[in-house]
Each structure stands twice: as C-alpha cells, then as structure tokens.
Amino acid sequence: MKLILNPEMITKFEYEISTLTARSTTMGIEEFLLKKYKREGIEKGLEQGIEKNKRETALNMKKNGLDVLLISNITGLSPEEIEQL
Predict the structure, then answer these.
(1) Residue 71's CB: how many other CB atoms inside 10 A?
(2) pTM of the predicted model over 0.90
(3) Candidate ranges 17-21, 25-29, 62-66; pick with highest mean pLDDT
(4) Domain for residue 78, yes or no?
(5) CB 83 within 8 A of CB 68
(6) Considering its fold, how many domains does the chain have in total?
(7) Residue 54, in any domain of the structure
(8) What span, in angstroms and rounded, lies between the C-alpha atoms of 38 and 49?
(9) What domain range is 50 assigned to?
(10) 4-23 tens-digit pLDDT
(11) Is-contact 64 82, C-beta < 8 A?
C-alpha cells in the first residue's frame, strides 16, 4: 500500500504539530510531553492543596462551634463533607 500525501495534507499535519508543540520548532515531542505533564501535575497538586486547606479550615471552624451551614457557605464544602470531618 502506497501512502500518498498531498500538499494540503502536509500543510495540515505541520499546522497540527506546531499547535501541539506551542509553535516551538526546537522542542521535541518527548520534551513537549514532559513539560505538559509537569504543568498538569503542578496544577493538580495546587488543586489538592486548596481542597486540603478548605477541609482543615472547616474542621477548625467546626471545632470552634460554628454552624455547619455557615462553614459550608464560607468554604464551599457541602454540609455532608463538613459533618464527616
């Protein structure tokens, strides 16, 4: 089977590659993927840290006698989540 590439397909392929690699011509695919997943890992870690902080704050509020609905409004956690703390 012979693969036939027309100029339009080549142009589209090159465009897609440049989009995926953020138009960097020096970055290889491996470096691109490492950078992408590192960034995603940092973002996920930050999200987890924010959620942990919300739970710790809610627990401290609960220990100090604040109403569960008030804690929910302040932290964004559900009343059920707060009750489980």
Answers:
(1) 24
(2) no
(3) 62-66
(4) yes
(5) yes
(6) 1
(7) yes
(8) 16
(9) 46-85
(10) 667 887 788 778 877 776 66
(11) no
